[in-house]
Amino acid sequence: MNHVLDRANTDVVLIVDDVPDNLSVLHDALDESGYTVLVATSGEAALQRAAQAVPDIVLLDAMMPGIDGFEVAKRLKASPATAHVPIIFMTGLTETEHLVAALDAGGVDYVTKPIKPKEVLARMGVHMQGARQARQTRNALDAFGYASITVRPSDGRLMWQTTLARDLLLAYFGTSSPETPAPILEWLRRHLPDAQRNIEPPKLTADLGSRRLTIRLHQQTGDDDWLIVMRECSDDAVIESMSLAFKLTAKEAEVLYWVVKGKINRDIGDILGSSPATVKKHMERIFVKMGVETRTAAASMAMNRIRQLHPQFEG
């Protein structure tokens, strides 16, 4: 499937079965219920398809030649890109050891063959609700520049991460998935008892030169998974935010930044290599653009906006 999937209006389900004709009734039922249905006929194809277009839920045949369903599930759960995707096993076997194996491999549920579409849709609805809420949370966080990761404290595994989170963890801690940076894991485990009682732990911070990463615990997303939110703040990021917020030039935003820091025009001129008269001209243009008349009002308005965008900023 080469086209981009429209995730705003539909959930994507990947059905994996080496005899897809057996599932034509299920395929039709899912299609009629508004799902976008992808099909894979082998474990190898399932892993490729999931990598190309991450599904919202997987219906997975347990017994297949080659890579069987149990192995497919383990690999999907081992990848941060797909670790959050709920997997429902489809099996003709009801022996206890197979059901245990399905759950051990990362399945959240199972249905027995012959498949009953209504039963499958009902089970999917239960698991999709949690997955959908988690996805909406991550999308909202991404939109506001927050990077997020999901960590399992019991084994220290990084289960999921956004692209921005991957870059930040590498820059600040030199680690990459599935390794959770030791300071984050230690902080999470230390405050877990409080978090489980809905007491938010203190934020964790990490410094990298003039850059600072603030890390906080957001919420529990599964039985043993926790969503952690990170945001980077630097002088450059604050200045850029002010430039965008008030439609200032880069130089005007720099002047306003130092006004917020309590500097007078002469000091700002020394810092920026400009004369006090030039700084005064910048200030006049800043007042007009912000609709204020005094530097106190400009500093107050700027500080309010900075606190919204960069809560950890210290003026």
- The CATH H-level homologous superfamily of the largest domain: Response regulator
- Overall geometric form: elongated
CATH topology of the largest domain: Rossmann fold
> What CATH architecture of the largest domain would you give?
3-Layer(aba) Sandwich
- How many helices does DSSP assign? 12
Compute the average pLDDT. Answer: 86
Domain Response regulatory: 12-128
Organism: Ramlibacter albus
InterPro entries: CheY-like_superfamily (IPR011006), Sig_transdc_resp-reg_C-effctor (IPR016032), Sig_transdc_resp-reg_receiver (IPR001789), Tscrpt_reg_LuxR_C (IPR000792), WalR-like (IPR039420), WH-like_DNA-bd_sf (IPR036388)
Pfam families: GerE (PF00196), Response_reg (PF00072)
Give a quick precis of the structure.
The chain is α/β, with parallel strands linked by helices and 315 residues long.
Description:
Residues 241-306 form the HTH luxR-type domain. GO terms for molecular function: phosphorelay response regulator activity; transcription cis-regulatory region binding. It holds the Pfam family GerE. The protein is an alpha/beta fold and 315 residues long. It folds into three domains: 12-140, Rossmann fold (3-Layer(aba) Sandwich), CATH 3.40.50.2300; 146-233, PAS domain (Beta-Lactamase); 235-309, Orthogonal Bundle (Arc Repressor Mutant, subunit A). It contains twelve helices and ten strands. The strands form two sheets. The protein has a five-stranded parallel β-sheet, sandwiched between helices. It is elongated. The two termini are 50 Å apart. Residues 1-8 have low confidence and may be disordered.
